[in-house]
Amino acid sequence: MDGVQIATSVLSLVAGVGIFLIACSMMSANLEALGSGKLKALFAKTSKSKLVGVGVGAAATAAIQSSSATTVMVIGFVNAGIMTLAQASTVIFGANIGTTITGQLVALGMFGENSVSSSVIFASFAGIGAFILAFAKKDKVRKVGGILAGFGMLFAGLSMMSGAMKYFSELDSVENFLAKFSNPFLLVLIGAIFTAVVQSSSVMTSMAITMVVTGLISLNQGIYITMGSNIGTCITAMIAGLTSTKNAKRTALIHLIFNVSGVAVFMLIGLFMQLGGVDYGFIFSKMFPHAPQLQLSMFHTVFNLITVIIVLPLTGLLVKFVTKIVPDKKTSAKEGAGPHFDFVEEHMLKTPPVAVQQTKREILGMAHTAMQNFEIACGIACTLDYAKEAEFRANETKLDYLNKELAKFIAALMKADLDEKDRLYLSTAFRTITDLERVGDYAENIVEYADKLRDANEKFSAEAVEEITQLKNLIAALFEKTVKAYTDTDKKALKEAYAIEEKVDELTNLMTENHIQRVSGGLCTPEVGTQYLSLSSNAERVADHYINVAKTIKSYS
Asked: Which of 130, 133, 132, 124 is nearest to 152 (CA)?
């Protein structure tokens, strides 16, 4: 082989790896977007049992073709406090099973030497997908085209890698050089480092399968490199966990311990087998004769399955262990009292469909906080009892924080690849959080009216208090329908919300008339009357803002 052939083979190998990486990313993004609804529902089932958690992790990873994405998503859930460490652990265990699907696909594509190669057949899907992307107009159809194109590119990249490695396998110098790497620990280290660099165990496993098939390395070498890839893939989760909460750090650590434990157990078994003159390569070559691609891909699957079987019963102990390694730091009440997100987390941006779902939950939480402040404000105005003022101020601070920071999060999320419905929903979310922040502002105004009454040593009459209470209850009913409409995209609830809002308008008009009569009869002073009318007007605007929130569903339903 001359210098030109060597250079060509090296460049072909680099190109093949690049195409393979792009294909994985393309498939992942489109599968995730197309299956967003199912993906959202999937993670809600993790609390049922350990086995369900494993199944969810495996299914999610098989669906989006990325164990790293699944793990980072889980870290985001833990960071937001909506998934326990135990639940997260089982999902991560399952993700390791789900990631083996890529290796099985690669092995499948390497059959058919004496006929039309299955790899060539699968690679043709790239052209079909590209054709769909060029002419399809519907978003769902384009997503399907993206999946097919990514699937085909995966095998096109694989063919380029295989061709390059076939050239290298013909060089005695290369074969002799690689044969020196027989130490299992060194092979595991190589697999871990390379996987950490490319941040994809799928690429490393696929390359190992290709190298084994072309005869560049032995099956046993490929097996230990594949083991190392399981450790290297933890780098993404570790990076995600470093800048997150204690529980998120623990989740990343669980991922690392789980993968390292599996490798350690299999390394130990491998060392004992070697004493008897047997190794993993010998066993799997006997199990799947004349199919080296299947030998390595099946080892990868068996390795992950057995690791899960061993570690799953120890989940509780593992959680306790990482909690001791990353202990809770005692913080003062002041340090823990700052505003923060309850449902969204920056790392969720890597999984847009789930991030959209969590954004909706965050907005609903903001709506409840705003309503709580409105009710506290009305209570203070009616009784001049300031016992809940500290809670009110904390809520107001949180509303201001959410209005600012949630807008930033939504803006970042809008840049992601989203389906049309999610994009339309997010476009309305900016207005929604502004409406909810305004509810908080009106609640603040009502407390200021109470302050003026207190300073003037005045208070509302019993009749006025009764009317304010009626108005507050009516707006609470409106809020309930708004939440129903917004949560479930329920147009019937929206219609009922409109009807209640009309009653709010009628009641505020009646309150104005009754106020005039009380002033005329000397039952109410002008100072009290001013605050009363301002409160009524502000409450009516609160109702208007909640209606604005409810009617956003018309934009994307």
From this structure: 124
